[in-house]
Each structure stands twice: as C-alpha cells, then as structure tokens.
Amino acid sequence: MRQIQKSTLFTLFLFIYYFTCSTSSAQPNSREGYISVEGGRIWYKITGTGKGIPLLLIHGGPGSRSCEGIPVYSSLGEERPVIFYDQLGSGNSDRPTDTCLWKLPRFVSEITALRKALNLDEIHLMGSSWGAAIAVEYLLTQQPKGVKSVTFAGPLLSTPRWMSDANILLSQLPQQVQDTIQKYERLKQYDSPAYIAATDSFYVRYLLRKWGQLSAPAACESSSEFNQQVYQYMWGPTEFTSTGTLKNFDRTDRLHELKLPVLFVAGQYDEARPETMYEFQKKVKGAKVEIIKDSGHLKIIDNPKEYLKAIRNFLAPIG
User: Fold this and answer.
1) How far apart are CA 12 and CA 7, in angstroms?
2) What is the 3-state secondary structure (H, E, C) of the chain?
3) What does the pLDDT read at residue 29?
4) Within-domain flag for 39
5) CATH code, domain carrying 301
6) Is residue 309 part of a domain?
7) Is 1 among the domain residues?
8) Is residue 116 part of a domain?
C-alpha cells in the first residue's frame, strides 16, 4: 500500500520517484505504448533482451505508478523481458474519474488485456504491495494458463492482516507518537500537522529506511503524480484506517489453491511484516520466503542489490 499526504510524506514519494527513475535515463532495447481497457488506455513499457520467460510487474498503490521501479527492475532484462505498466488512473495511463472503475475485478482485467495485446503466452507475475492483491485475484478467479510463477513483494493479501500488522508496528513507536495518531484518527483530522508528523515517524521505520538520503533530480516528469482519489476510494484516508472498497479484502483462506511456484518477499522492517510472510508461506505448498535485510517496504531503494538477487534466484531455475 502507498499513501500520499499533503506533508513531508508527499515530498518523500516525489523524492522516491525522482531518485529511482533518474538512476538510468534510458533503457536500451525498450519499447512502449498504450492498450485499451475498460475506462480508457493503460501505458506499458518493455525492457530487456534476455531469452527467459517475461516478467510482468504490477505496481502498488492504489494510485501509484511504475516509474519508480523501471531503473531497478530493468537490470533483470539481461535474463528476460521485463514488462511495466501503469494501472488505469495512474502514471502515464488515462485518469478517468468514474468511481465505478475502481474495483478489483476491473484491475484484474488489465492483466488479461496486456497478455492478449502483447502475446504473452508465458509469464512470471510479480505484484508489489497492492499489486499483489491484483496478482492473487487474477490467479484465483481467472485460473490463467502460462503463468510460471508469482512473486508477492510486501504483499496486500488480506486487509485485516495488514491492519493487524500496522497496529503491531504502531505499538512499537514512542507512546507520544501513538497517542497523537490515535487522537487524530479518532477526530478524523488527517491533515493535522501533528498527525502528519506522527505518521511520518511510522514511515521512517517501516516504509523507507533511507529516509534522509535521497536527492530529487528531474526525472519521471512525464508521469502524473500519485492519484489520491483512487487511493482514498479503494483504501481510505491513512495506512491505519481502511474505509474503502478493499476494507474487507482477504484471500488468505484461498492461498492453498495456488499451484505454481510462489515467492513471498519483504523487507526486514517492512510494514508487510516478515512474520506474516511466513504465515502465508504455510498456506502454499512449496512456497519460498525471502527477507531483505536493512529494508523497509521500499526494498528497491533500501537494498536493491539483495532484493534483485532474491528475485533472480527464484526465477532462474524456472526459466
């Protein structure tokens, strides 16, 4: 999950996007375009010339964009094509305002459309954060052919579990910070400077460990910013309060239905807690878990080397 507030957190995410998208100004042997889906067009980009099975990446949010991951994940292109796309309402894709479009099944249909348009008979899937909800829903409801593996990175697979994890992590913050968050959550004053400062304390620990080590060069300028409308409609006002259409989302009782290679990966300090990854692993026969040291939720920034190593090691034996 990703949340943008009118605060230093908003600036942080801009730094994240700028930092990661600027590490490589161009990806060789890449192509991009648009695909029509219900409600508009979605943008995609393919990088890499490797001969392995393509990797399709599903970004987080709801309302985020794929730009932040392109420079990091593109290095996997040495082994296989890597496919990025922006979900409808996000990044370079169209941004309709019809809330009827912000439903999980419609986001799932984007995967079907991408595979058909790009002739992706065989793929590896990777869903990050909210993107994992799309990935698991696609696998469970569509039972698609040709999906050779799925990686769930810092995954949202259960909103109740996500909220439980958030509450555990909140309880580890200084009492004054906890009291401030509880006060303004109760008052529903999410724009209060005191509340914003308190929530930033959470993000420093569990979202991005390298909070103060980012620069903001000009990059990702063609990609629209975080779509707060989609986030609030589907998730809610904060990471700790889910009031949107995803508030009852939970697929933990169906994880055992997954019959393909599965990797759960999280940062050592991830808001998607490592303990939860091991609980998920127990539900999927043969599933693997990788915990990326010294990382929060944004593993591609905190420890990209170890993160990519884990992904490579998982995908390589499969193809």
Assistant:
1) 9
2) CCCCCCCHHHHHHHHHHHHHHHCCCCCCCCEEEEEEECCEEEEEEEECCCCCCCEEEECCCCCCCCHHHHHHHHHHHHCCCEEEECCCCCCCCCCCCCHHHCCHHHHHHHHHHHHHHCCCCCEEEEEECHHHHHHHHHHHHHCCCCEEEEEEECCCCEHHHHHHHHHHHHCCCCHHHHHHHHHHHHHCCCCCHHHHHHHHHHHHHHCCCCCCCCCCCCCCCCCCCCCHHHHHHHCCCECCECCCCCCCCECHHHHHHCCCCEEEEEECCCCCCHHHHHHHHHCCCCCEEEEECCCCCCHHHHCHHHHHHHHHHHHCCCC
3) 66
4) yes
5) 3.40.50.1820
6) yes
7) no
8) yes
pTM of the model: 0.91
Percent of the chain with pLDDT over 90: 77
Q: Which domain holds residue 291?
A: 8-315
Question: Which residues carry out catalysis?
Answer: 129, 270, 297
Number of domains in the chain: 1
pLDDT single digits (tens) 48-98? 999 999 999 999 999 998 977 888 899 999 999 999 999 999 999 999 999
